[in-house]
């Protein structure tokens, strides 16, 4: 047996993936982690579940042809790759007290505490990872943060695979991106920039590189996607940080060869910055990004250029001919070229072959992670010997061509409707007119209380749906169970004293999939889960054709719920941008065209809801921020079509119909104009985790319509106390005029249990009463 741990100088693998799903083909990790949290399995059982997934994934990728050393990415994570990096750096925020154990390590419980919070502390803030629907945990860095190698999880993961005969390529977030994604810790002085701690984290990276080299790693992958984004610090500062970081890391005495990866867009000017360092390989995204100039590529010298030509973020079969052409160009200008995906494939499911319920035609158009591994392998073969890949390339070309003419892809009725749209279809009356009409129709108290839509999806609800799908429960029985649940949700809200009620969305498996299942142009998967955050997964639908509404979707449920109460019942829809963002969307026409088709379908649904007597309709757009292009130059175009599609969906509503929207998960400051542009009468926004930061943006913008900054963080089981909520509301009324303010949680309650939900919602009402009374005092 060769000594696998001996130092080596292998070339970068000709074919590899930038990352791979880590949740398991059947969401084994989700199940194990949740069982561990529930105390049903111990740490050893969790560890062996994790190892089983790691090994299965590595073996699968080898089977698919990624057999070279370091071709299999070591991208496993128990929760999040940024949290992993925080753990390796020991960057535990001071507010958590002493989380490191006696050996100075962050054990698995400490790790989960950062992710989920504890009785005293909110978890780390969560936000979107670049332009994806994946969320990472935001590091909190201050002048006081101490850095020490507090975890060797990545070394252990590597050693475990190696012991099983597979040399993987350990992955960790690179130092510059790590600090650029961090926020200043609570106590940090004004103007403190986490990037100023660069010198202090580098020694920990160096120590980690040493341990990886000692364990036998030939390559390590440092992920630097922040370099493809326009940062709010000068480019020259970013460049200096990169130069310094990689000067130190490449000078480490014992280290694996270093691949720096830059997924999610074009690296542009920073390519030269990396070219000037001594790293061994540089990955660039040439799927979403463009092929750099020959001169820029020549600057890479002896470094391997890892070409991300296969899209890691969407599921369409690769246009191998187009990729081959890009590779030719790259090869002509750069010395060594290897093939990979544009991003980690953690954003797409495992395997199309599992989706046997899809038509053969649709399946032939798709590539999930495993198919992408084969595509990458084919393209690497092409680079070595173009003739060897000819059959595969021709087949891909033919299949892609078949999409253009397939039934349902372009429908004359749908196209006629979008082509006939005029400016008037995108606008409602002036807000003052609507406000008066709504006041008259609704008579709401000051600081109206409401929730965001979903109530806990109990195991009874989920099992009823599963049994209905299997045919064990008739549609009639299922419908009755959902109605019972709606009744329970309505009476709970009545009892708690909420002003605007919801039906609780029990009938929806998912806020996008539910609509996808009821619209033409979509298909849904059975096993196509992708990680959203932690143990949470979603199953994006596939939007492959022209979209139309077959029949009313939500009306009967809303109508039933409204019949149970004299309070206004909110109709609940998912907006066009979110439907697109959380589906895998066709790539053969501009997103704006697809969004308008969805907008029109929703517009018809709103008209039907109004006709059924629903006076308030919420159109959720939690993903509005997520699709925002990373480069500032591309943002205006996106904001125009996304805002337009929402307006198209909602502008048919009568003046007296109150249109709500809901946004969550992100910093909104940058898109506040667009949020205003949606022209919704009421906007609820996530704010509890970030402790009401958003109200400052709203204030400085002069946001003039209704707004509900969330006062209950629903992402953790923690119950907010009455005083805590009172405090948040008191902050809000200082910045937002009370007549505009609404009281609501951050988001829907579907992931919560009833016990904590009831208690929390009760505290919201009590706090509202306190603040309302205070408002009356000030008026007197
Ligand atoms: Zn939400």
Task: Please provide a brief summary of the model.
By secondary structure, the chain is α/β, with parallel strands linked by helices.
Descriptive account of the structure:
The structure is a single chain. The protein has 27 helices and 21 strands. The strands form six sheets. It has a seven-stranded parallel beta sheet with strand order 1-5-7-8-9-10-11. A five-stranded parallel beta sheet has the order 16-18-19-20-21. Strands 12-15-17 form a three-stranded mixed beta sheet. Helix 11 crosses helix 13 and helix 22 runs parallel beside helix 23. It is globular. The mean pLDDT is 95. The chain binds zinc ion. Pathway: Amino-acid biosynthesis; L-methionine biosynthesis via de novo pathway; L-methionine from L-homocysteine (MetE route): step 1/1.
Topology of this protein?
Layout: H1 28-37, H2 43-63, E1 72-74, H3 81-89, H4 108-116, E2 126-128, E3 135-137, E4 140-141, H5 153-163, E5 168-173, H6 175-181, E6 183-184, H7 198-215, E7 219-223, H8 235-250, E8 257-262, H9 270-275, E9 281-285, H10 294-298, E10 304-310, H11 320-333, E11 336-341, H12 360-364, H13 369-384, H14 390-405, H15 412-419, H16 431-442, H17 459-470, H18 475-496, H19 513-517, E12 519-523, E13 530-533, E14 536-538, E15 541-549, H20 555-563, E16 570-574, H21 576-581, E17 583-585, H22 591-611, E18 616-620, H23 632-650, E19 658-663, H24 672-677, E20 682-685, H25 693-701, E21 706-709, H26 722-735, H27 754-779
Parallel strand pairs: 1-5, 4-6, 5-7, 7-8, 8-9, 9-10, 10-11, 15-17, 16-18, 18-19, 19-20, 20-21
Antiparallel strand pairs: 2-3, 12-15, 13-14
Helix pairs in contact: 1-2, 5-7, 7-8, 11-13, 17-18, 22-23, 26-27
Zinc ion is lined by residues 452, 622, 662, 664, 747-748.
